[in-house]
Amino acid sequence: MTSSEQSTREVNSYESLFGYGHLRAHYLGSDMTTGSLHVTQFVRTEHLAILRDNLLIDRAILSHGSNTLLQRQITPVSRQCLWELQSGIMLRVLENITGLHNLLPDTHCKQTRLLLPPDTTGLHQWHTPDTRLDVALVVVIQLDNGNAQLCTNAQSLDTTSTGNASLQVSYWQHHPATTREVHS
Hints:
Layout: H1 3-12, H2 20-27, E1 36-39, H3 48-57, H4 59-62, H5 68-71, H6 76-85, H7 88-98, E2 104-105, E3 113-115, E4 127-128, E5 133-142, E6 148-151, H8 154-158, E7 166-174, H9 179-183
Antiparallel strand pairs: 1-6, 2-7, 3-7, 4-5, 5-6, 5-7
Helix pairs in contact: 2-7, 3-6
């Protein structure tokens, strides 16, 4: 079966790319006091190769940052990956693991990108004043083994290894306006 046929089969007979049950069973209520948590088997092992291959096919698109016109051209498996990472199920699992509340997905992929050597992890900014959004969580998924690093601060993100290829995904939290900002 060719890679294209495998990709089509997986999309047509939908199976989740991520091990939600495994994540809940092993990481629920984890200690995030250091700002970092290593998660094994974040990506289901049976889907890792096809996910990696498709994300690498889409590397030019996923390396540009937020560009909706380019993102329309990504492969079905890459689209499924982004959809799952932005889904309510994934948000609830990540909230239960980290103890963070009210996470919002990076639906425009402003800080979601594919990292290839010599790229390093990092964010353009942790706070966006015009939208009152703060990056609360960054997940760096290692595409060579399916493990992930969950980071809640710049220091833990800066020390995260990216391996051969990684997908960096950000999750936001709304930063409420202060009383002074509301009445101005």
